Amino acid sequence: MSADMVTALLIFSRVGALLAVFPLWSVQQVPVPLRIGSGVLLSIIVLPLVPQTSLADASMAELVLIILKEVSIGLILGFLCRVVFSAVEMAGNIISSEMGFSSANLFNPMAGTSESIPAIALYWLTLLLMLSGNLHHSILAALVRSFDIAPIGASVMHKEMLIWGVHYVGQMFGMALQMTAPVLGCSFVVSMVLSLLGRAVPQMNVFAESFPIRTLTTMMVFGLTCNLMALHIANYLKRIPMDMLQAAQWMSPL
């Protein structure tokens, strides 16, 4: 195989792995040939920007190992793009539980699963924020830059990568809790008020009255805080390209 073909194959391994888990491109509604074609097209575009590898004379076993390494890098970079969406879905499920809508699930075509209504609304909000802010362009630029930081065939998985990854996922859990904090606080206040009313007026059926009151108050708070949630989500989305470069730095041979 020529050097250009080997380089293109290795580029496609990283790009295709990222697209396989990318939130917009990994849905079932996108045909597999379109996904593969997009990966091939991006690989051709990126090919002139990546130095040619000196692996044309490598054995088949060595080439397979390098392909697996490139696929792993692509999956890691794609995971960083997807973890924000997972945190948003978690926040939506928590909000749905507080509203009492846990059993009212709808099919989310982008995620391919049945989810609660607030989770679907926040998922689509996150997707619209990513596209309207042209963050997909920044993500592609970070992907191209990753070939300079972690060159093909020379990347190394440092042990600090695992520590950084655990810390990053922990930040996403914190993001979900911050988004749900107003709704959780409102639910707690409603529970406290109803508990006091139940003690003051024993004849009152607090359990039956709590459902409509909790649903109305949490829905109102959720609606009033959607703008703040959008700003919060946008701030985390803007960090994705820099986080991808940071992850590539942890896989750099230097």
Characterize the structure shown.
- By secondary structure, the protein is mostly helical.
- The chain has one domain.
- Helix content is 74%, strand content 3%.
- The protein has nine helices and two strands; from the N terminus they run αααββαααααα.
- A two-stranded antiparallel sheet has the order 1-2.
- A hairpin with a 4-residue loop joins β1 and β2.
- α3 packs across α4.
- The longest helix has 41 residues.
- The radius of gyration is 23 Å and the shape is elongated.
- The model has no long low-confidence stretch (mean pLDDT 81).
In short:
This protein has helices spanning 3-21, 32-46, 60-99, 117-132, 135-149, 160-200, 206-224, 226-238, 240-250, and strands spanning 105-108, 113-116. By secondary structure, the chain is mainly alpha-helical.
Unreliable sequence segments: none
- Inertia-based shape: elongated
Q: What percent of residues adopt helix (DSSP H or I)?
A: over 70%
Residue-averaged pLDDT, rounded?
Answer: 81
The end-to-end distance, rounded to whole angstroms, is 29 Å
Cα Rg: 23 Å
**Strand arrangement across the biggest beta sheet:** 1-2
Give the ordered list of helices and strands: HHHEEHHHHHH
